[in-house]
Structures are given as structure tokens and as C-alpha cells.
Model the fold of this input.
Amino acid sequence: MKRRQALKISSIGAISLSASIGSSCTKNVYFFHHGVASGDPLNDRVILWTRVTPQQAGPVEVILEVSENKHFSSIIFSEKLQTSSLSDYTIKYDFLAKQYCDSDRGFFYRFRAGNAISEIGKSKTFSENTTAAKIGIFSCSNFPAGYFNAYQAAAERNDLDLWLHLGDYLYEYPMGGYATDKAEKLKRVPEPLHEMVTLSDYRLRHAQYKKDQGSKALHKHAPLIAVWDDHEFSNDAWKHGAENHSKDGSEGDFYARRSAAIKAYYEWMPIREQQNKRRIFREFKIGKLIHLIMLDTRQFGRDKQIQPKDYLTESGFNQAKFYNDLNSDNRKLLGTEQLDWIESRILNSSAVWTIFGQQVLMAKLKFPDISKMLKSKEIPSFLKPYLKFLGLGIPSNLDAWDGYPAERNKLYKVMSNAKKGFVSLAGDTHNSWVSELKDKSGSKVGIELGAPSVTSPGISDVLNLDEMKFVENIVKINSELQWMDPTNRGYLSLNCMEDKIIASFNYIKELEEINSDISSSKSFVLHREGLELEEIKA
Done:
């Protein structure tokens, strides 16, 4: 154990209170209903988080304790922190772990308030000499859609050094909205019942998600690095609005809603905040092994999504105008500031692996004619408006990078000029994907691994498809796509070594009961040399 330094570390998000915590507060009763969490590990520090629930409102003093053993027989660090309703009684502390222990080997932490003691969390930093790391990749965790068994399964395997959440950590919809049809049966009715719009709404929904058994298990197991996607705000959000934000003013001002969502997110997530609260893109270095670049493809620089229906005229689909607008060099997904930042960070890295953690699929993707693959002759009503576009050969998801091809080309050029092949990690789709990414000339620039959802419905949940036929056809018509799975929920794990990454898709057995069993898995080896991809046969 290293000798304790005299330097005091300032907390992140702690509230400066003029009121003293006097005798009236000592009679209060406290609870830690929402577990503990850690996040954003650097080589010397990591964020430690909890939420205390007081029986009586008012300022609260919370004590953070750190030990090198889970029994806390020796406490190497202790700090008094303060919180109040101004931060929804959450606590975040940027712990300079390297000053107190060999933190790359791991340490334990807990919080105390009055007579209450939180669960014990485990966290770590990463040494500059790190040569291997196991990372879990998660996305799209919808509380009313099922139990977070994927979180529980990963926690019980007890082999992750770190986990990433690529967005849609929670969903904004009301009871009766998307994926809530089984909520009452599962006792997972969203709180509040209405769609979250105000700061109070977002706080309540975050609190509900943090109470989940699987969520608490994984959060206390290993540090998290997260980015938001649209549902942390509202469906199909962009920099000036969202598809699911009313245009009639009934849901108020979009910017006020976005500010509320961001404030609640920073309160409830173990994330290190930047001066510009909308700026979530940031980098992490795991030794000389991994340069992890977390992007914001959602709300920082994104222009509004193109809608094919807007190009329908009396004489048909105006294909020329559609492609002229789609391919415009002015359409932004990352935005100039973020793209310039990526270039500057890339040029300052000599890591073995460059990995982008981001929200939406980068691969070029078109869907086959789904109407010919339905097991039932009845075409779902929501699909009918899209049938007219199936034969046009346009990209299937214009909310993804396919809706911003010029921006994708700019990123590929930045990476090619820097001579950096990369791995793109994507969430959003609820399904699993493996693709070889190619630039305009057809040269391979990277590999993309699309993570399955934790609970949100996938293609086969929404459509009664001939799944084998669908997979065969979608792989056949997309040259970049190597493999996909439209059926299973779970998580992706990466076993990162200097010469290769073993990527495993781990699929849970059950969504509607608490059951952490893994029913099946699919693995690939990504070789560093040439970014060659090899499927591991079962």
C-alpha cells in the first residue's frame, strides 16, 4: 500500500452548502437503494458514485471509504462528502486512486450515511503496462421490455475489467408506449407513468433503472464508460430537436428538455463531466494496448435525419433530389469540432488498437424485401408505409451513418491519413452485426461489431420473419456485412490482446424471468495483422 498523501481531492458534483449539517440531520435515517457504481477510469483515477435516500429532506453528509480488501479491515482512504436535493442526493467523487494503492490491481469502495452502509463496489484503473483487457459491450436496456439478465450474467462471470454502454441506457416512453406490453406482467411498469420530459421525470426514470438487480450487480462489479444515444433524450434526437418531441408545444421547449435530460444523466451516471455539458465525446488509454475514443453521433453535431417520404411526389420518388441531399458535404453527424478533435487525438496515439465506442452502425446496409420473408401473409400496419421504398435500393437506416455518407467518408479519410485501422463498436439496432468497413475505393479501413440489446426488441421480435432466409439475404446483398443475428438479446465481450481480439456475442436464455443463464454464444477472432476476421466455428 502506498503512503497516504496530504493532498485533498475535490469531489465532482458535490454541492457547496452554506447550511451546516447540524443536530437535526443526525436524527435522519438514510438508505442506499440504488447501489454503487464507478466509471471513466484513467491510469490514475476513477469516478466513484452512489445515491443516498434520506427519510427527511435536507443536506446530507456521506462518507466514502476505500480499502484494498473487500472486508475493509484496513481503510486506505476516507472522505466526507455532501449532497442535497440540488443533485438529487447523488454523489460523484473523482478518486485519485494511484496515490493510495496499486489501483490497476483493483480496490474496493463503499459509502456511509448515519447508520447506513452501501453495498461494496469493486473498481480499478489501468497501468501503462497493461497488455490484456476484457471489456463488456452493452446497449439498449429497456426496463419494461424485460429483466436485465445480460447485466447479471456479465457480473456473475466476474471476468470484466471494464464495460461500455453505447447508449439507450434508459428509454423515455410512457406506459402503453414502445415495448411496454408486458410491463405489468413483469412488474416493470415505467416510473413515471407518462413520458419523461422534465428534470423530475428523467430523475425518476434513472432511479428506477438503478434499482434493478442486474444493473446494481454489474455497476458494482467493474467501472463503466458510457455515452448517450437518443432515448436518454427522446427518439431520433438531433442537435435541434427529436422525432418524439412534440411540435405543438405540449412538451415544452426542446432545449429545456435536453438540458433536463443531460443534468439527470450526469447526476445518475458515473461519468466525468466536461465544461460544455453537451460535450460527451472523450478518450481513454488502456496502457499501450487500446486507444478508446467515445463519440457522440447523436446530439452534439448531428443534422436532422433525411426522411424518404419527403421525396415522394405525384410522379413518384424523386431519387435525384434524395441522393443530392443525402450525399451533401454539408450534412453533419459528428460536426467539425468533434471531427477535428478525433484527428488530433489519433495523431497523438501509438496504441496497438484504436477502438471507437459510438451509437449507430457505421457499415453500409440495405435491407432485403422483408415483405417476402414474413411467415404470415398479413403485413404489419407500421411496415406498410415503407414498402414503397423497398425496391428503390436506398439505405435501410438513415438515422445511422448511412444517412450521413459524406461525414463517414471524412472520418475514413482521417483514419487512412493517420494509417490507423480501427474497430467500430455500435449499439442502437438491438441486433448483432459483424462487418468489414470499406472506403469509397473498396479498401478495408476497419471492422465493426454491433452489439445486441440488453432487452429492447429486435427484428424478429417485431416481425414474424423466416429468420434464416432473412439473414441469408441481408448478408448476400451487403458486401460489408459478414454475419448478423436478428433474434437474441445479450451482450458482446472483447478479450483484447496485443495480437488479436476475441469478440464473443453472449446470448441470454430468458427475458421474462430473472435468469442469468447464457443460452448460446458466437465468437470471432480479429487478428491485428491486416484486421483479418475469422469466425470461430462451434
Q: What stands out?
A: The longest helix spans residues 254-268. Confidence is low (pLDDT under 50) at residues 1-25.
